[in-house]
Design a protein that fits this description.
It is built from 5 helices and 10 strands; from the N terminus they run αββαβββααββαβββ. It is an alpha+beta fold. It has 3 domains: 33 residues; 95 residues, Translation Initiation Factor IF3, CATH 3.30.110; 112 residues, Protein of unknown function (DUF541), domain 2 (Alpha-Beta Plaits, 2-Layer Sandwich), CATH 3.30.70.2970. The longest helix is centred in the N-terminal third of the chain and has 29 residues. The two termini are 46 Å apart.
Length: 246
């Protein structure tokens, strides 16, 4: 007892040194080791119907006289506009672009295939039009019935309709929420199966936003695909989350 009293200070200092050495040694061994984390990827997916249609077409007139070619083309413009309006398409949904004018020539060749001359065959005027409407059914149906204009003497070249969705911003937010929730549930399940618990979120990265035709084998693009040929589409996005593990 007298020994302890005499050397108490020394003993306490020695114990403190040992404890401090243990703490510092443990800290040194742990230094540079990353905290345990888990990385997971969640998917958000949504199918939807397009609510905007864009349909493009063009027609042309030929004549030796430019003035007459213009007159014929303008007459066709009026007939096409009247036809579209009769189908339920509003005038403000129809856009006629500036006419394209080309001088046409016929080239003659000899029996050996050498060019021997050319002569002017007239003017070709092409008129392009675009219909942009939310009346998807109406425009879609009209685009399939243009043979009625062809029968009336207007050589209308119709392109396949393009389909769009005007609420993509809202849809994207909803899908990000879905993908984040999916990733969180995956991470929580993995942590539980490993005998631990999920800690705080370290990082969150959003993947590429893709829109493809529904139920298709359409390839994804590195920069994000954006299908416009199908009315019914499927959009998807991924979220990569990294959590700490307790």
């Amino acid at each position: 007892m007298n020994f302890f009293k005499t050397h108490a200070a020394t003993i306490i200092i020695s114990i403190a040194v040992i404890v401090t050495g243990y703490i510092l040694g443990h800290s040194y061994l742990s230094k540079g080791k990353p905290d345990p984390v888990i990385s997971v990827t969640g998917l958000g997916e949504q199918s939807f119907d397009s609510d905007l249609i864009v349909w493009r077409a063009n027609f042309s007139r030929n004549n030796m006289e430019l003035k007459q070619a213009y007159a014929d083309l303008n007459n066709d413009v009026k007939r096409v506009k009247a036809y579209l309006k009769s189908k339920g398409i509003a005038e403000d949904e129809i856009v006629f672009e500036a006419a394209d004018i080309q001088k046409m020539y016929h080239t003659e060749y000899d029996s050996d295939g050498n060019e021997i001359g050319s002569y002017f065959t007239g003017y070709n005027l092409t008129q392009s039009l675009k219909v942009r409407s939310k009346k998807v059914d109406t425009v879609e149906k009209t685009s399939r019935e243009v043979s009625q204009l062809i029968d009336a003497g207007i050589e209308l070249n119709s392109n396949a309709p393009e389909y769009y969705y005007t609420k993509l911003a809202e849809l994207k937010i909803k899908m990000i929420e879905e993908a984040t929730k999916d990733a969180y549930n995956r991470a929580q399940k993995i942590a539980e199966n490993a005998g631990g618990s999920l800690g705080g979120l370290k990082t969150a990265d959003m993947g590429v936003f893709q829109i493809t035709a529904e139920n298709s084998s359409e390839d994804y693009s590195w920069g994000g695909s954006f299908n416009t040929s199908s009315r019914r589409k499927t959009a998807n996005i991924t979220m990569r989350l990294e959590y700490k593990i307790n």
